[in-house]
Amino acid sequence: MNKPASKRLRFLLLIGFCFLFIQLNRAQQKSIHVFVALCDNENQGIVPVPSSLGKGDQPHANLYWGAAYGVKSFFKTKAPDWQLISSAKPKNDNILERLIFKHATQNVYLIADAYSGKEIKACIEDFLKAGNHQNSAIIYHNDVALNIGGSADLIAYVGHNGLMDFDVNIIYEKQNKLPKDVILLACYSKNYFSTELTHANANPILWTTHLMAPEAYTLNAAIDGWLNGESGAEIEERAAQAYNKYQKCGIRGARNLFTTGY
C-alpha cells in the first residue's frame, strides 16, 4: 500500500473511532426530567403556607423551588453530586424557569422545570404524557443533546396533588417500549395517580400513601438509588431515611409514607 493510501486509511479509521466514541457516549448518557408545580396559595387547593413561600408566580422564594429545600436551592447548595450549569426561561409560557444540572461523576443530566402554580394542571398533564413516552424532545446545552419529556430516562413530579382538585383528560398511546420509571412526590400520590399511571404504562419506582412535604431531599435520595441501579424497595428505604432525617417524623412513619410499584 502506498503512503497516500495508508494515510487516508488511518484518517478514515480515526474518524470511525471518533464517531463510535460519540455514539457510545450518547448511549451511556442519561437524563432526568423533573416537573415542579410551584406552590400557590391562591390557585391550588392547599392549606395556605406563608405568603412568601406560596406565590406561584415567584419561583425564587417558592416552597418547592427557591426555598431552602426546594428543588433549585437543594440541588444547587445541598447536593454535592450535582452542579448547576444552566438557568433559563424556556419558550413554554407555563414554565417560569428551567434548570440543567450535571452529575459530578456520571454522564447524567437533570433538567428541572418550574411551572407557574396556576398551571399545575398543565404540569401534571405534561408529566403524565412523558410517563407514556409522549412529548419526546431534545434540548441543547453547549452542543450536548439532552432528552426531555417522553425521551428522558427518568421523570419526576414534585408539588401539590392536583388530582385532588381536578381531573385530567389524556389520550394515552399504546407503547412497545419499556415502562418509563417515574417518581411522584405529592400527598397520597398512589391513591390518586394509580389509574393514570396504569393507563400510561409507567413504572412508579417511588410514590406516597399519606400526606407529605414534597421537598427535594427525598427526590435526591431516590435519584441516587436509581442511578445505582437499586431495586424499588431499596429506593423506598433511601427515601424514608432522607425524609426522617429532615422531618424528624420517626423512621417507622417515614417507611409507611413511601411505597414502590403497584
The radius of gyration over CA amounts to 20 Å
The total strand number stands at 10
Shape call = globular
Oligomer: single chain
Describe the largest sheet: 8 strands, mixed
Strand content range: 15-25%
- What share of residues is helical? 25-40%
The tally of structural domains comes to 1
Chain-wise SSE layout:
Blueprint: H1 3-28, E1 30-37, H2 71-77, E2 82-88, E3 95-103, E4 108-115, H3 120-131, E5 137-141, E6 144-148, E7 154-158, E8 181-185, H4 189-200, E9 203-208, H5 216-227, H6 232-247, H7 251-257, E10 258-259
Parallel strand pairs: 1-4, 1-7, 7-8, 8-9
Antiparallel strand pairs: 2-3, 3-4, 5-6, 9-10
Helix pairs in contact: 2-5, 5-6, 6-7
Q: How would you describe this structure to a colleague?
A:
With 262 residues, this protein is of the alpha/beta class. The chain has one domain (31-259). 35% of the residues lie in helices and 23% in strands. It has 7 helices and 10 strands. A hairpin with a 6-residue loop joins strand 2 (82-88) and strand 3. Helix 5 packs antiparallel against helix 6. It is globular, with a radius of gyration of 20 Å.
Concise synopsis of the structure shown:
This protein is of the alpha/beta class.
Summary tags:
single chain, 262 residues, alpha/beta, eight-stranded mixed β-sheet, two-stranded antiparallel sheet, 7 helices
